[in-house]
Every structure is written in structure tokens, then in C-alpha cells.
């Protein structure tokens, strides 16, 4: 079928909106009429080829929409169901069997390979091959082809156009707190970086009852949003010694910290600000090969550094949980979102990179 998609043709060039062709679903696939798709930092670093995803390609991995058609073997959803699209895992490696799909052995090939698992393409432009299957969805388009395993059914009462970011950025930040660090009620947590991932972590920390929630960010507008969402303190790292201030507020050090910026210097602060036996979660993804130095004695005294992918989320379980908290008013992630039409995708990217907008969400050209 013909679809309208934003194509990344070359490294770091603007997205171009084109009419291209999308395959029909195979027996285990689901075709989704996309309503809206969030833009995540990963889309932009792939556009700029920090990760070697083959081009030309259709990116987009925070899609939400309505199931349009399904393959013959699909039982999880049916046409008309509302779904959020998320990352895909293989289902048959050690981590997948242990219920840790974020650490799937095939994570890179399943999500960044540009093709179906068997290497075939799902997109073309009048005969020219186009790489798709980005996070097995390529949802910068008004229709997307997903696999049965990476669609998550959501209730029809929920505001579908808002839900795409639950599939990546929001579950990454919230999951890092609720699934990975699991702070006890009354504990302290420091969130480094108040972008969409960090702010999702702030909301989650409030939801689970942390008593001290400190957000660290260089941008005043983001610090203000952090306070609105539950941060008890905010710090501008350019104006002060972050570690000392945190030690002061927490009377000696934080129980938990979360690094979302991918900057080595900030990661070091996230470790140094911990109390004895404190845990630092790392979700910021730097360029391959990035190194950082740490004081070994700091780690020796019971501290833990823990890498976290996709918030340790099992999406079929975790996304409905977040949605329930949202519907109860306890996880207001809608405050992060600004909508753009798909045709304005380059403006959305620019606003995201400059920090004017925390989470751009692209509305697809057909409404619903
Ligand atoms: Zn796997
Ligand atoms: Zn993402």
C-alpha cells in the first residue's frame, strides 16, 4: 500500500516527506494505522549515524495507532484495537527466557538492522529499496508494519495520540526507577538530565514515594518542569558544585542516582554524589567507546553502578501500568509533549535538539 513517510536519505540531512510503499503483513505481523509518533533522541543520533543503521531509512520508534490488518497467525490483537508500538526482542535467547527482553542477544539486529528478522525489506519507493523495521515499526509514517510481539494493546478510553512515547523514552526513565532501582519510599534520588527520560524518572520517583527528588539540568525551563512534576530540589550544574550541594541536601549522599545525559563528567558526578551502598543507574547512551574515570574507593564502599536498557521494562506489563498511573493523574507525562504535524518533522527535531520542547510528538496525516 502507499503510505506517507519521513525518510532519512543521507547522514544528517533533513527528513523528507515522501509517498512510498509498505508491504502487507506476514502471518505474524500487524499493520497499524499510525495516529502519532514520539520523537526520541535515538531517532536523531541515528539520522546523524552515530549508530550504523543503513540508509535510506524510515525511522520513528514511539508509534501509537489503530490495528488496520493482521497476519493469519496473530492472536494478540485484531483490527480496530488501539496499540502502542515498542522495541522488539527475539523471545528465544537467554535474557528473553528470563523475562529481560531489553537485554535480548538480538537487540541491535532486531531494532536497528533496517529489515525484518529474516533480512527482507518491508518498504520501497517506486521500486527503490528503503530500509524500514526501525524498532520493528518505522513509525515516522501514517502506516507501520510491526511484529505481533512488539505491539502493546491499550484501552480505547486512553488518549491514543499521546501514548507513543510510552513505548521508549517514557518507559526508559520511569522503568529505570520503578523496575531497576526500586527506591524505597522515603529515600533520596538524584536525576541527572531533565529531558523526557529524566523527567519520566522524576514522575516515577514521586509515584513510588521518594522523599528527596533532585533534578540537575543546565536549562531553567527544564528545571521548572521538573519541579512541576515532583522534584523537591533542582540544581543548575553550571553555577555550583553539584556533588557538594547534593551531599548537603541529603545529609551525606543520595540513596539513588540516575544518569540520563550520556556525558562522562556527569556520570562521574552521579556516582560521587551517592551515600555508602547507594546505587547509580546509567541510561544515557554515549558514542561507542566512551570512557570515564571513577575513584575505585567510592565503589568499594558498597556502591553499585547499574546499566539499564529500556527501563528493564517488559512492555506488555509495564506500559499498561504507566497508563493506569497516568489515568489516575499520578504520572502526568502529557506535560512533556508538544504536537507537530508530520510535515513539520524537521522543526520538531530542531526544537528537540535546542531544548525548546521536551518531547515532540508527530501527528500523522489522516486523523482518526
Ligand atoms: Zn532475545
Ligand atoms: Zn527511543
List the keywords:
7-stranded mixed beta sheet; globular; single chain; alpha/beta; binds zinc ion; 368 residues
Describe the structure.
With 368 residues, the chain is of the alpha/beta class. The protein has helices at 41-47, 94-97, 107-112, 169-181, 196-207, 220-229, 242-249, 264-272, 296-300, 315-327, 345-354, and strands spanning 2-8, 16-22, 29-38, 57-58, 63-70, 82-85, 123-125, 128-130, 143-147, 151-154, 188-192, 212-216, 233-235, 254-259, 274-282, 304-307, 337-341, 359-363. The strands form 3 sheets. Strands 3, 5, 6, 9, 10, 17 and 18 form a 7-stranded mixed beta sheet that branches. A 6-stranded parallel beta sheet has the order 13-12-11-14-15-16, with helices on both faces. Strand 15, helix 9 and strand 16 form a beta-alpha-beta unit. Helix 4 crosses helix 5 (196-207). The mean pLDDT is 96.
Describe the secondary-structure layout.
Blueprint: E1 2-8, E2 16-22, E3 29-38, H1 41-47, E4 57-58, E5 63-70, E6 82-85, H2 94-97, H3 107-112, E7 123-125, E8 128-130, E9 143-147, E10 151-154, H4 169-181, E11 188-192, H5 196-207, E12 212-216, H6 220-229, E13 233-235, H7 242-249, E14 254-259, H8 264-272, E15 274-282, H9 296-300, E16 304-307, H10 315-327, E17 337-341, H11 345-354, E18 359-363
Parallel strand pairs: 11-12, 11-14, 12-13, 14-15, 15-16, 17-18
Antiparallel strand pairs: 1-2, 1-4, 2-7, 3-5, 3-9, 3-18, 5-6, 6-10, 7-8
The structure holds zinc ion (2 copies).
Amino acid at each position: 500500500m502507499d503510505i506517507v513517510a519521513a525518510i532519512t536519505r543521507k547522514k544528517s540531512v533533513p527528513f523528507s516527506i515522501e509517498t512510498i510503499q509498505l508491504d502487507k503483513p506476514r502471518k505474524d505481523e500487524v499493520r497499524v494505522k499510525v495516529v502519532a509518533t514520539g520523537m526520541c533522541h535515538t531517532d536523531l543520533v541515528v539520522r546523524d549515524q552515530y549508530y550504523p543503521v543503513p540508509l535510506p531509512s524510515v525511522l520513528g520508534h514511539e508509534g501509537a495507532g489503530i490495528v488496520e490488518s493482521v497476519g493469519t497467525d496473530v492472536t494478540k490483537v485484531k483490527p480496530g484495537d488501539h496499540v502502542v508500538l515498542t522495541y522488539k526482542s527475539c523471545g528465544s535467547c537467554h535474557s528473553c527466557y528470563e523475562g529481560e527482553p531489553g537485554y535480548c542477544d538480538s537487540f541491535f539486529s532486531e531494532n536497528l538492522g533496517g529489515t525484518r528478522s529474516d533480512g527482507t525489506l518491508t518498504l520501497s519507493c517506486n521500486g527503490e529499496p528503503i530500509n524500514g523495521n526501525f524498532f520493528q515499526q518505522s513509525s515516522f509514517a501514517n502506516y507501520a508494519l510491526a511484529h505481533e510481539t512488539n505491539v502493546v494493546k491499550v484501552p480505547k478510553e486512553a488518549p491514543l495520540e499521546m501514548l507513543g512515547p510510552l513505548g521508549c523514552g517514557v518507559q526508559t526513565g520511569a522503568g529505570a526507577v520503578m523496575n531497576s532501582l526500586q527506591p524505597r519510599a522515603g529515600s533520596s534520588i538524584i536525576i541527572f538530565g531533565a529531558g523526557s527520560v529524566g523527567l519520566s524518572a522524576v514522575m516515577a520517583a514521586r509515584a513510588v514515594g521518594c522523599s528527596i527528588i533532585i533534578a540537575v539540568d543546565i536549562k531553567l525551563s527544564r528545571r521548572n518542569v521538573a519541579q512541576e512534576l515532583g522534584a523537591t530540589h533542582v540544581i543548575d550544574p553550571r553555577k555550583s558544585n553539584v556533588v557538594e550541594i547534593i551531599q548537603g541536601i541529603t545529609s551525606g549522599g543520595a540513596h539513588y542516582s540516575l544518569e540520563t545525559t550520556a556525558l562522562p563528567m556527569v556520570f562521574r558526578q552521579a556516582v560521587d554524589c551517592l551515600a555508602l551502598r547507594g546505587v547509580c543507574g546509567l541510561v544515557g547512551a554515549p558514542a561507542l567507546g566512551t570512557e570515564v574515570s571513577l575513584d575505585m574507593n567510592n565503589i568499594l564502599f558498597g556502591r553499585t553502578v547499574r546499566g539499564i536498557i529500556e527501563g528493564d521494562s517488559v512492555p506488555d506489563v509495564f506500559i499498561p501500568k504507566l497508563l493506569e498511573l497516568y489515568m489516575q493523574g499520578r504520572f502526568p507525562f502529557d506535560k512533556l509533549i508538544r504536537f507537530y504535524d508530520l510535515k513539520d518533522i524537521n522543526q520538531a527535531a530542531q526544537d528537540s535538539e535546542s531544548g525548546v520542547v521536551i518531547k515532540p510528538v508527530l501527528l500523522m496525516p489522516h486523523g482518526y
